[in-house]
Amino acid sequence: MTQTAIQEPVRQRVPAWVNLVVIVSAVLMGAGAVIALVNPAMLVDPHAEINAAVRTYAGYLTARNGVLAVVMLVLLMVGARRALGNLVALVGLIQLFDFVVDCAEARWQVAAGVLVLGILLLMAAGRLAGAAFWRRAAWG
After folding, report:
1. Planar angle of CA 69, 89, 37, nearest 5 degrees
2. pLDDT at 129
3. pTM of the predicted model, to two decimals?
4. What is the tens place of the pLDDT at every residue in 73-90?
C-alpha cells in the first residue's frame, strides 16, 4: 500500500517593497477615510459648499477606503497572498480611475501621486500573483 503525503504549497516571502507599497497604501487610504469623515472640506475646492450631499458621499468614501485599508493589512498579516494580490489589483485599478477623475477635474496637485500609487499597486499585485494581473496566470 502506497502512502501519499499532503503537500503544502511552498510559501514564498512577500518582497519587502510589496509590503511597503501595501502598508503605505493602507495608511494613505485610512487617512483619506478619516479626513472624509472628520473634515470633508479638505477633499474639495476651498470655495466649495459643504452640504448634506457632500457629507453623504464623504461617508461612502470613508466606508470604501476604511474597509479596503483594513482588509489589505489583515491579508498581509495573515499571509493570504492570493487574496492580497487580488485586492491590491483592485485597489490599484481604483487608483487609476481616481487619477482619471483627478485629471478630468484638473486636480493636478494630487494626480501624479495617485498615478504613481496606482502603478505601484498593480506592480505589487503582479508580484504577489506571480504574473501581471491582466494575464490569466494571475487569476488561476
Report:
1. 30
2. 87
3. 0.83
4. 999 999 999 999 999 999
Closest CA to 123 of 92, 99, 97: 92
Residues of the chain with pLDDT under 70: 1-11, 133-134, 137-140
Whether the Cβ atoms of residue 79 and residue 11 lie closer than 8 Å to each other: yes
Query: What is the distance between the alpha carbons of residues 61 and 31, in angstroms, rounded to a whole number?
Result: 11
- The helix-helix angle for 16-38 and 52-78 (nearest 10°) equals 150
Residue 18 corresponds to which cell in the numbers above?
A: 510589496
Q: Report the distance separating Cα 48 and Cα 108, nearest Å.
A: 17
Task: Give the model's pLDDT for residue 47.
Answer: 86
Going from N- to C-terminal start, the domains of the chain cover 16-134
Hey, is 39 helix, strand or coil?
coil
Which residues are within 8 A (CB) of 130 and not within 5 positions of it... i.e. 6 or more apart? 137, 138
At residue 133, φ and ψ (nearest 5 deg) are: -60, -25
Q: How many CA atoms lie within 13 A of 25 on its CB side?
A: 34
